[in-house]
Amino acid sequence: MRDFIYNLQKGVTGIITDDLLGFYLHGSLAMGGFNPKSSDIDILVITNSSMKMEDKRNLAQFFLHQSNSPYPIEISFLHIEQLRNWQHPCPYDFHYSEFWRERYESDLLKGTYNYFSEDLHVDTDLAAHITIINHRGICIDGEPIKKVFPSVPKSDYLSAIISDYQECIENIEEDPIYCSLNLIRVFWYLKEGVISSKQEAGIWGLKTLPHELEITIRKVVNSYADRKDTYSFEKDELILLRNYISEKVQELLRVLN
C-alpha cells in the first residue's frame, strides 16, 4: 500500500512538476477502515494555479493505467484559490474515478476534448472530503493540512452527506452493505458529531442500536470486513434498519433546523 501511494504521488508530481502545493489522503484508508477488495484510494491534490489542458490529459492517461492495479482511485485536483474563496458546491480542476474511465478513454482515443473542457466543474462531495481531511486526513507531501484547507461550514458538510444518505435510503436492498453502513454513519454524526469510516460506524451501531437490529448489522459489518462467511439479507430486516435510522435522522434534522 505504501508503494502504491508513493508511486501515485511520484507520478502526479512528475506531470504537474513544480505546481504541486500538497498531496492528501482521506477516506477509509486515512481513517483505518480500508477494505482491499472494495475500498477506493481517496486523494485530494492542491496546486498553486489552474491546471493546463495537456496536464489533464496526461493525468487521465496516468490514472487509467494506475487505477484498479490493484486498487481503484478517486482523486480530485483543486487550485488554492478555489479553497481560499470557499463556496459550496466546491469547484475543482480535474477529477478521476472509475466512473469516468470510459469517457476519458474515448477522449484520448479520438483526440477530443469532450471531458477535458475548461468549463467550471463543481462537486458537492468536496465539502465532505475536505471536512474529513481537516479531521482525519494525512498529508503525503506538501504543505500541512491546517495551512491549506479552510474550515468547511457544518451546513455544507451536512448537505454533502445527506445527498448520499438519501440515495442509500432508496437503494438499501440493492446495496445492503454500503448503504447500511452509510446510514449508520450519518446517524452517528448527527447524534454525536463523530466523523467516522463505514467500518467504525458499523462497530458503533453494534454497540448502540436496538437489539433487534443486531443480527443485521453484524452481517453487514462482517461482510464489509471481508470475512469468509457469505450472508444473505432479507428485505424485511433491511427495511427495519432503514426505517429506524430514517426516523431518528429526521428527528435530529428537525432539531438542527
UniProtKB/TrEMBL annotation:
Alphabetically sorted, this entry's keywords are: Antibiotic resistance, ATP-binding, Nucleotide-binding, Nucleotidyltransferase, Transferase
User: Start and end of every Polymerase nucleotidyl transferase domain?
Assistant: 23-76
Domain of life of the native organism = Bacteria
Q: Which SUPFAM superfamilies match?
A: Nucleotidyltransferase
Q: Does the keyword RNA-binding apply?
A: no
InterPro entries reported for this sequence: AadA/Aad9, AadA_C, NT_sf, Polymerase_NTP_transf_dom
Q: Which GO terms describe its molecular function?
A: adenylyltransferase activity; ATP binding
List residues of the Adenylyltransferase AadA C-terminal domain.
Answer: 147-238
Sorted alphabetically, the Gene Ontology BP terms of this entry are:
response to antibiotic
Would I find Transcription regulation among this entry's keywords? no
Q: What reaction does this enzyme carry out catalytically?
A: spectinomycin + ATP = 9-O-adenylylspectinomycin + diphosphate
Q: Which residues form the signal peptide?
A: none
Q: Do you know which Pfam families this protein is assigned to?
A: AadA_C, NTP_transf_2
Name it. Spectinomycin 9-adenylyltransferase
Specify the species.
Oceanobacillus bengalensis
